[in-house]
Amino acid sequence: MLRIRVLHGPNLNLLGTREQSIYGTLSLDDINSTIAKLAKELVVKVDIRQSNHEGELVTWIQEARTGYDGIIINPASYTHTSIAIRDAIAAVSLPTIEVHLSNIHQREEFRHRSCTAGVTLGQIVGLGATGYLLALRGLHEHLTASRRQKKTAAPATARRVAKGTR
Ligand code: CA2
Predict the structure, then answer these.
(1) Which side of the chain, N or C, has fewer Cβ within a 10 Å radius?
(2) Predicted model pTM
(3) Pocket test for ligand 1, best of 81, 102, 116 (most atoms within 8 A of CB)
(4) Span from the CA of 30 to the centroid of ligand 1 (angstroms)
């Protein structure tokens, strides 16, 4: 079974309470329930966490190296500032998808830059909570394809070793 860690950054625990015109009306619990529902359909194990602390997010990314196949992360404001989160994502080298509820490229200039996007598989912005579901589907497809590829590549390698051509 594929295992994916989903991380929400600072202030996302306030979703649904304020700034609804930007971030929508759903609470973080609502969003997490839709992620969990889709994960069940896809037969993926998800571990979903939120933190207001950069170091905690870094630790959770590092820990994902053992026991997880990929990461979905909305680093929230740390997207624009955190080299530490970028370095953690690069260090674990797990396929990672960055999600933003709002379209950061249409907003203030300081939100246009993402420290993290350069070390991710992809970035989804501006689609609200649907972005997390697309990220889950995308990561599931990516991981399933790479597992399939590994399975078909392995017997060929074994044959080459047996023939002494490798
Ligand atoms: O659009 C996104 O998902 C963001 O990652 C959200 C961050 C923001 O700093 C990024 O530029 C874009 C902010 C999350 C704060 O969420 C709140 C929710 C309700 C009330 C206040 C803040």
Answers:
(1) N
(2) 0.93
(3) 102
(4) 16
